[in-house]
Structure formats: C-alpha cells, structure tokens
Amino acid sequence: MPEATRTRLFLVFGGVFLLLFCYSVMDLPPWGDYRGPYGDVIARVGVYERHATDAVNAINYDYRAFDTLGEEFILFTAVLGVMMLLRREEGTATRDAGKVKDAMRLSTSVRTAAMPTILLTVVFGFYIGLHGQLTPGGGFQAGVILASVPFLLYICENTESFRRVTSHTCLEVIEASGAGAYVLIGLAPFVMGMPFLTNFLPLGTTGDVFSSGTIALISACVGFEVTAAFLLVGYTYLQEIITGEITEE
Amino acid sequence: MIWIGAGLLVLVAVSGWGVVRTRDVTSQVIALGFYGVLMALVFFFFQAPDVALSQITVGAVALPLMVMLAISRMKFRAASQRDKGERDA
Known about the structure:
Structural class of chain B: mainly alpha
Helix content of chain B: over 70%
Helix content of chain A: 55-70%
Oligomer: heterodimer
Largest sheet of chain A: 2 strands, antiparallel
Largest sheet of chain B: none
Number of strands of chain B: 0
Largest interface: A-B, 27 and 21 residues
Number of domains of chain A: 1
Distance between the termini of chain B: 67 Å
Radius of gyration of chain A: 24 Å
Low-confidence stretches of chain A: none
Order of helices and strands of chain A: HHHHEHHHHHE
Radius of gyration of chain B: 18 Å
C-alpha cells in the first residue's frame, strides 16, 4: 500500500476514533465517584468476615476465589503450551551450535552489588507473599519477584549458574503441585459438607501473618505455582542457548 | 494533587509514543519496561496499590523479560544458521 494512501486511511480512522474517544470521555463519572455497591460492602464487612485487611486479596482468594482458580489455570495452560511447542524430545537429532562463551566475568564491584540484591529480592518476595492478606501484594506478585532471582543470577554470574538453578524436574513438580493444591484446598470443604472453596480454616487474629484462613494458604500456593511457571518458561526459551544444541527441523 | 495525576498521564502518553517510535527491538523492550513502571506509578496514584504491584512485576519485569528471551533465542538460531552455512560452503 502506498505511503499516501496509508496516511489518508490513518487520518480517516484516527479522526473517527478521536470523535468516539471524546464522546466517551464526556460521559465519565467524576474522579473518585464510585457507583457499584459491592466494593463498599466488602470494604465494610471484609475485615470482620475474613480477618484480612487487604480487601483486594480477600476478594481474589476468597469472595471470587473460583475466578482466580480459572486464572491460575490460564497461566498453567499457557506455560504448558510454551513448553510443548519448544520442547525437545528424547533422541531428537540435534546439532552442536557451540556453547555460548560467557564473556569475561563481570567486575567485582558489579558482583558485590548484585549478590546482596539477590538476597534482598528473595526476602522481599517472601515478605510480599506471606503478607498478601495484610498489605498489597500476594502470591502472584511474590511469584514473579521470586522468579526474577535466577535471572538476576544469570545477569551477574553466568548461564551455568542459571542452568543449575532452573533445570530441575522439581520446578515442574512445584508448578503442578501449586496448581493442584489450590484445587485440593477448594475441595476440602466438601468433606465437611460445605460448598467449594469455603474458607474453612480458623481465621486467626486480624493482622497476624497466619490469619485469614484459606486466603493466606491459597496465596502461598499461587506463589509457588507462579514462581515455577515463570522459571520454566524462561528455561525453555533459553534451553538452546544454555546447552548449545539446536534441534534440527 | 490533580496536577500530579495529569502530569503522570502525560508522561505515560509520551513514553507510549516513545515505545512506538523506537525502531531497534532491544531498545524498544527497555522503553516498554520504562512505560510499565510509569503505568505502575499511575495505578499507585489512583489508589490501587495492588494493581500497581502487579503492574511492576508483569509490565516492568515479566513482559520485557519474555520478549528479551524470545529475541535472544531467535538471534542465537540465526547466528548458528549463519555459522553452519559458512562451514558447509
């Protein structure tokens, strides 16, 4: 398509979009105006009913835990898809592309600065994960933070260290059991004759790390699943570069 | 207070334009990460700290990382393909 036609087409559709955009913005409620009743209700009864001070996680892992279960399995399936598409089956012909030579080691100052960063990131990840029911955060965010740790190691050490951390079968087991534990926590109330995903554990004292019953537990399971999921995807992508073997098509 | 919000939104618009205008893929990923951090600030300003934290982890860490990994994989394949061609020739 010639440049001029493209520009003209863009101007036409851009103009239409701008009109529609202005039209929709005119009808926006004012800043801070909240109309739905659900948020107000949960903000009022959430702490009393669930002993969780972070209303967002009380909703995510309790009031609408069924939706979160679906989201959890979206991630699970997506990771499964990536691993299936990029997998290398046993006995496939590979050719040696030469291992990536890790260029000269980073300067001592970078490594000295990076190692405490790794430690801090691990602590921060666990903090975010364990305090999900009290402060903003929760399992998902903690999972991504913890998953970034081996990548930090990859940056400040070498591919070999990254491979040692991420290439274990136990990562797959952690991912699967994280997703499975969520379902099991959901099924457990059936034994006591309660509906799926009922918060059946004692709620504890509001403000404690181990308060809010199943909210904290589900959050932890999600954390394990997400950590393993991101690392598995990362390792799958980097596998050829790490091993230096390319699958022949 | 409202001016901080407006300023943040303008910054988001500018950096979004920057992401689109960057042509080199690797620099574009870095720009995308920066855009992700700005979006997190916007969420934080509009009183959604949970979303802001998710935005930092996903928009500024996970998404650029995944794109980087895909690029490095493709580059590695392309480079080794070239080497192979040279060896065969």
